Amino acid sequence: MSEQATPPVKLRASVLAAPAYKQGAAPTKPGFKLSSNENPFSPLPGVLEAVAARAADSNRYAGAAMPELRETIGALFGVGPDHVALGAGSVTLLFQLVHAAAGPGDEYLYAWPSFEAYPSLGLASGATPVAVPLTGTAEHDLDAMADRITDATRVVLLCTPNNPTGPALKRDAFDRFMARVPSDTLVVLDEAYREFVTDPGAVRGEDVLTQYPNLVVLRTFSKAYGLAGLRIGYGVGSPAILAAAASVAIPLSVTGVAESAALASLAPEATVVHDERVAELVARRDALVSALRELGLAVPDAQANFVWIPEVAAGAAAAGQGGSGQGGTELTGVPNAQALAADFVEAGTLVRPFPGHGVRISVGEAESLPEALRIVHAHLAD
Ligand SMILES: *Cc1c(COP(=O)(O)O)cnc(C)c1O
Fold first, then answer.
1. Pocket of ligand 1 (CB under 6 A)
2. What's the Cα-to-Cα distance from 58 to each of 53, 150, 250, rounded to whole Å?
3. What is the pTM of this model?
4. Which atom in ligand 1 lies closest to the alpha carbon of residue 92?
5. How many Cβ atoms are within 10 Å of 49's Cβ, its own excluded?
6. Residues 286-290: contacts with CB under 8 Å, at least 24 apart
7. Confidence at 151, pLDDT banded by 50, 70, 90
8. For a 10 Å CB count at each end of the chain, is N or C smaller?
């Protein structure tokens, strides 16, 4: 809101001071949009038909309970439908959970850099965001996070794999962390990219859910299922926590079309294609990581559908402090994330810069890989 003219009515100063949400611009032909971690594939077979059929009922409100979808999702976690909440994107559930748990004077904790929505979640509730820097390998610093928990901490957000950097939390590190979190403090495991995880040591929501009553797991249909535009995600956890979150929800925000699309996406016929597509995106991701490391870049472990190129200060780059590579080659980062992103824009392709931290490149169309590598290579040669 800060760039707007003075509003004609009294508004909250904290809201007026907040930066406006900026969505990335559209790419120019023949470039690619690699800036929002979207799925390059269209919705799964059967989904558009289900959407078209359901759209015919658009004059009616959808039934808010959506029991079949909650039952289907619950079965994937081995819990009943009362342990499942739906939201218009999992970011909606994040917002509700923070609002249900944290108000003025309370704190909520997360790693940084992480999901860009986290800092503003407390804006409307009045809770104070507390960001704990990632480690040098772009992972959650769980010890530092546990140290930072106080009586004021009401929610801890864990993003795994971490958007924008890529590494997933390990199961053993997660269990050690949970042992240090008060059992009456809400922990949210944001697994928006769960389907792309290939590290067998990574924590999985379904494995730990019953062990920790203070844990809520969030997943979405926006990324691996390719339904970003339809807005549907879900949370799994204690029915009492989810009921509190529902109390602060905007009613009826999950549409019937989104419900039908989600159900069709989970159908057995769709699941086969889903698994093939995820495997293809994982293969492209791994190829992109290898190629970028061959260019000398210290790309951290990538467990989602994006890769991270860190920014390193010029002096550190010269001294090779960005991490060490195979065979004595020092891996490093780029000196200026925004300059690299600007080179992408120039070429018609969009990536997401995090000024001072690095650049995130989403794994997109097969043809986007050589193009991304070409741009990075030219940038490094400059
Ligand atoms: C994309 C994303 C989400 C949720 O997106 P929705 O479209 O609202 O479901 C949640 N968390 C992280 C870390 C994400 O990157």
1. 37, 89-91, 115, 159, 163, 190, 192, 220, 222-223, 228, 233
2. 10, 47, 19
3. 0.94
4. 8
5. 12
6. 287/369, 288/361, 288/363, 288/369, 288/372, 288/373
7. very high
8. C
